[in-house]
Design goal:
The chain has helices at residues 4-14, 26-37, 76-92, 102-108, 114-119, 132-148, 162-169, and strands at 41-45, 57-61, 66-70, 121-123. It is of the alpha+beta class.
Length: 177
């Protein structure tokens, strides 16, 4: 496992030349990444399938486009966070999840043709951030959030609650969202 300093440096390298919109806008960010990579990037909702209930985000790479699927029923801030994590996988060119095969993809993403399924890479995590690739994707998301100068919405930072006390103890000012 890489140390955090090395991981942050690598994340900044991967983000080199990619503008982070101010104020942050996911679609504009996706367009900027797509321009840098010379690829179309689509943001879609995850299919409404109970078998995907543990999945909050997924990245599919096809010959036609990079497709980031996101949990539909979550807050805008959380949706952006999930998307940025998936962008971390995309920008790092992480390999497909070896536990997912062509038949599973066909069941969960019925719009993909058989030829597209053969070329599709699928990436998602439901077991936390234990491996190096998950940590790298999470660090890239963190660097983007830092550049965007956004943080969790005020209701997450319950005034006087645990996060507020922790921020005060670490002397890190909370940002206005």
């Amino acid at each position: 496992m890489r140390d955090l300093r090395t991981l942050r440096s690598l994340s900044r390298q991967r983000l080199s030349g990619i503008a982070v919109p101010q104020p942050f806008d996911l679609e504009a960010f996706a367009a900027g990444v797509g321009e840098k990579l010379g690829r179309t990037i689509e943001i879609r909702d995850l299919p409404d399938d109970p078998r995907l209930s543990a999945v909050s985000g997924a990245w599919l790479s096809t010959n036609r486009a990079e497709i980031i699927h996101l949990e539909a029923g979550t807050s805008g801030w959380h949706r952006d966070l999930i998307a940025l994590h998936e962008f971390g996988h995309l920008l790092s060119n992480h390999p497909s999840d070896p536990d997912w095969d062509r038949e599973q993809l066909a069941r969960h993403f019925p719009g993909l043709s058989p030829a597209a399924l053969d070329r599709t890479r699928f990436r998602h995590a439901q077991d936390g951030y234990s491996d190096e690739e998950e940590q790298e994707a999470e660090m890239i998301a963190s660097v983007i959030l830092d550049r965007a100068d956004i943080g969790p919405p005020p209701d997450v930072l319950d005034s006087g609650g645990l996060l507020s006390r922790l921020a005060e103890a670490l002397r890190h000012p909370l940002r206005d969202v």
